[in-house]
Structure formats: C-alpha cells, structure tokens
Amino acid sequence: MTQPTAPIRLVIVDDQAMLRGALAALLELEADLTVVGTAGSGSEAADVVAETAPDVCLMDIQMPDIDGIEATRLVRERSPHTRVLIVTTFARPGYLRAALDAGASGFVVKDAPAEQLADAVRRVHSGLRVVDPTLAEASLFEGTNPLSEREREVLRLAADGRSAGTIAAEMFLSAGTVRNNLSAAIGKVGAANRVQAARLAQEKGWI
Predict the structure, then answer these.
(1) How far apart are CA 19 and CA 13, in angstroms?
(2) Which of 50, 59, 131, 156 could be joined to 136 by an S-S link, Cβ 3.0–4.6 Å?
(3) CA distances for 144 relative to 52, 97, 101, 196, angstroms
C-alpha cells in the first residue's frame, strides 16, 4: 500500500498580523500544505525558521526591522534546505533581482489567486523557480541596479528628507562624500534632483 506523502511544512512571514492569518488559513485548506509557524518581522523569521525547519518560507519584502531580502539571506543561512518564496505587494524589478540574488526560489505578488499561490509553493518545494511572468518581463527590460551599495544607502536616507550633513553624520562620512554619492546616484537614475532620484529608485526596487 502506498504511504501518504507528508505535507509541505510552511512558515509565513509578514508584518501585518491579519494578512499572516489570512494566508495561513487559505493555505491550510490545501491537504498537502501545513503551516508550522509565523513571524511578524525579518529578524523573527530567522529564529522561527531555525526552530521549525520548514520546507518553504513565504516572505514579505517591506518590514519594520530588516527587509525580506536580508531576511531571505538569514533564513538560507540558518536553514539551508528551506526554500524561500517572496510574496509581496511590491512588484518591482529591482526587488526580484535582489531576492533571487539573496537565495529566494520564487517571487509572486499578493493579489495572485489562492490556488496559484499554493501551486507556487509546491513548485518551489519541488526545486523549481517560480517568478511572476509580468515582473520577469519587466526585469529584463529594466536591467540591473546601477547604484553602488553606498549610493543606495545615501539615497535611501535622502528619501526621508535628511540633509547631506545629517546623512554624513549617520554614515560617518564627510558631507562632500555624501554629496558626491548623491550626485552619482542622481545621474545613474536619470533624475533631476535627489528627491526625484529616490522616488524613481524606489519605484524600480533599487533602494
């Protein structure tokens, strides 16, 4: 007699408790899926995954402490056999590339039908890579992130309205270095000023 296949064990990571609960409830309706843990932040995700050793971790991108990209790296370090499926509202090409570079096996948007999400979990668990087709096409045309790590950080801080002096103090850099990095970032993004550069970079998922 054929032995029943063990269900795919999941951890769901999202900073919105209602959404975590909704995703868990939807996926638990599938006979071959079971939720063994949830987390409300990127740092908590690594601990929960280390404790539960799930097959697949469903990961949000934007969270209050560390983002889903860095959390994906931590999860893969703590539990190498766990595959990460990014599930996010922010369908941005830059996020896709960064997530895959961090070790994610898939990237889907939150408005996908429940059946499609469940299928994505199964495919990722089987070793396949799953990427939202529209986002994959956009990623091909957008190209890679042109910003250096320092330029990304400077632009990220500038997006919140910080002055060059304030950014310099926070990053332990000279004001001149900060201005040079802002200028380089503005040029690479093709913007008129740092506010526009930050907005464009955010829209593309580069910061």
Answers:
(1) 10
(2) 131
(3) 35, 8, 11, 19
- Token digits for 100? 């895959």
Contacts of 187 (CB under 8 A, 6+ apart): none
- Strand order across the 8-13 sheet: 33-39, 8-13, 56-59, 83-88, 106-109, 130-131
Phi and psi at 136, nearest 5°, equal: -60, -40
The token pair that represents 152 in the structure block: 């990304």
- Amino acid letter for position 50: A
Tokens of 90: 């922010």
pLDDT tens string 16-59:
999 899 999 999 999 999 999 999 998 899 999 999 999 999 99
Side chain identity at residue 105, one-letter code? S
* β-strand pairing of 33-39 with 130-131: unpaired
Enter the pTM of the model.
0.67
Residue 31 class from Cβ within 10 Å (0-12 exposed, 13-18 middle, 19+ buried)? exposed
